[in-house]
Amino acid sequence: MSDIIEKIGFGTIIQHGELNDRIYVMKLHKKDFPDILERIINLADEYLYSKIFCKVPSWAAPVFYSNGFILEALIPRFYGNKEDVFFMSKFLNPHRFQNPEQEMLDQLANLLVNKSDNNSIHEKPESYNILKLNMKNADSIASLYKKVFDSYPFPIFDPEYILKTMNENIQYFGIEKNGELIALSSAEIDKTGQNAEMTDFATLPDFRGQKLASILLSKMEVEMLSQGITTLYTIARLNSMAMNKTFLNQDYTYAGTLIKNTNISGKIESMNVYYKHLDVLGN
Questions:
Q1: Measured between alpha carbons, how far is 275 from 283 in angstroms, rounded to an integer?
Q2: Nearest CA to 273 among 14, 117, 75?
Q3: What is the pLDDT of residues 38-72, one digit of tens each?
Q4: Are 173 and 131 spatial neighbours (Cβ–Cβ below 8 Å)?
Q5: Count of H helices and E strands in the chain?
Q6: Taking CA 104 as the corner, what is the angle to CA 100 and CA 107, rounded to the nearest 5 degrees?
Q7: Integer CA distances (angstroms), 198 to 58, 201, 213, 242, in order
Q8: What is the mean pLDDT of residues 207-232?
Q9: For residue 236, which of 274, 186, 268, 190 has the smallest C-alpha distance?
Q10: DSSP letters along 175-232, please?
């Protein structure tokens, strides 16, 4: 079971369904604003979703605020290296806002206070091969994700979905050992907005602890820079301190926490947003 992604109005893209028990406004089209607000609120009421989660440009934020949305995260200079993006949510059921993950939030606070300055590039073992993946790898990509995650907010267990995303806006990267795919990540690219989400990191259990996510992240950063992307971001699991450390150690900035936002590994979890401007590297 996975939630559906659909285009509504003049081009607003949303994801919604029972898996995440929410509506996610992934891309807001200016011509749909502000009427889109009433439409998504009515949709949430129809299906009894407990959360509406929206990624909106700063110009739209005041109207969302006036309709009961709260700010959960903010990335400056997100669109075209100029305009900020607001991650705004409306909680439609009290249980969705109640947060049972206080221990993890305390660990995050400690991690942010004591952030390591270790942003060195990790070298891959000689027997490993890091590469940009293509359509021939779709089955292997879906198979690895299925081995790692019990559930995921998008249908990445389906090779047909992987192929579809490759034809649209997602590039996949992997690490192989002896021809076997052992670790994965992807970059979801918005060329118009010059930003990319660093996402879908997964490593087979037998190969964890070798900083393969850091190696993949470094590879993707170089690739994104070469393609004119100016802002990188991620939405990382609060419950995975290892992934949080991966981004913090490579100079990503914490932008906020999305409470009970995403169904991943079998349950709905809170997520942390991080970002990095590539122009800080002098480019």
A1: 16
A2: 75
A3: 999 999 999 999 999 999 999 999 999 999 999 99
A4: yes
A5: 8, 13
A6: 150
A7: 22, 8, 11, 15
A8: 96
A9: 274
A10: EEETTEEEEEEEEEEETTTTEEEEEEEEE-GGGTTS-HHHHHHHHHHHHHHHTT--EE
The mean pLDDT of the chain is 93
* Tokens 């393609």, located at residue: 227
Which residue ranges form the domains of the chain, and what is each CATH number? 4-92 (3.40.630.30), 113-281 (3.40.630.30)
pLDDT at 283: 42
Q: At residue 222, what are phi and psi to the nearest 5 degrees?
A: -60, -45
Query: Residue 30 has which token pair?
Result: 């200016």
The predicted structure's pLDDT at residue 121: 57
Q: In sequence order, what are the beta bridge partners of 91? A: 51
Residue 217's identity, in one-letter code, is L
User: What's the whole-number mean pLDDT along residues 252-262?
Assistant: 97
pLDDT at 125: 77
In angstroms, the Cα distances linking 154 to 175, 243, 258, 265 are 22, 19, 17, 12
